[in-house]
Amino acid sequence: MGILSWIVFGLIAGALAKLIMPGKDPGGIIVTILLGIAGAIVGGFIGTAIGFGSVGGFDLRSLVVAIVGALVLLFGYRQLKGK
Asked: Which of 13, 56, 65, 78 has the largest CB neighbor count within 10 A?
């Protein structure tokens, strides 16, 4: 996937993670996009490490992995910024 595809995929994953875990976050849409992109990357690494397979395109499995990664990062971000 190209960089533009990862940005769009990250936006979708970040927005869905924000819907799943609503709340007040420091930062706006840019932080959500960045967390989504980073979450897609982290989720891909975690998914590959536990044997879930590689993330290599737009499919439901890749979206779930990206959302889980974004949720983990969003939770961590809230914990760091909340203190």
From this structure: 13
Rounded distance between C-alpha atoms, residue 61 and residue 53, angstroms = 9
Per residue of the chain (83 residues), what is the pLDDT tens digit? 556 666 777 778 878 887 887 777 666 767 777 877 787 777 777 777 887 665 566 677 777 777 888 888 888 888 887 75
Cα 31 from Cα 70, distance rounded (Å): 11
Q: Give dist(CA 40, CA 76) in Å, integer.
A: 15
Residue 69 to residue 73: CA distance in whole angstroms: 6
Q: Where are the domains of the chain?
A: 3-81
CA angle 21, 68, 3 (to 5 degrees): 110
